[in-house]
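task queued by scheduler; priority normal; single chain, no ligands, no partner chains; default sampling; output format set to structure tokens
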Amino acid sequence: MDLAASYTFAAAPTTVWNLLIDPAVVAACLPGCERLEPIGEDQYRASLNLAVASVSGRYAGTVAILDKRPPHSYRLVVEGTGKPGFVKGEATVELVEQDETTIVNVKGQGQVGGLIARVGQRLLGTVSKMMMDRFFGCLQERAKG
């Protein structure tokens, strides 16, 4: 599954960058996130409760921020497993300053397997985009404050 989206922030790249790499902000804005705790430099243990179609469940996994170029870009690698299946993904997050705003471009790929993939296959792209929109909408609100 491929994902791509762009989000515009009424804030400087440094402000947006700081929000994107703050584990407390990310945990508060990420739908279904129950816990995001550091386990190393730029590595986190995550616990999420997600639902796709009639399948819901808790996932435990890791999140790593790699190839950081503050405040311009980084690579995000996510792996998680749970009773409903597994999730693996990687995305590039790029911040571009434009006319007193910051545009965040996200481009990535993900794999989902197990029961959640079999039951909710047609909905996975829609649910993933909806989660990204909610996450970045929350960040946009925080950037205003």
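post-processing summary
- Strands lie at 2-9, 33-40, 43-52, 55-69, 73-82, 85-98, 101-113.
- The two ends are 34 Å apart (CA to CA).
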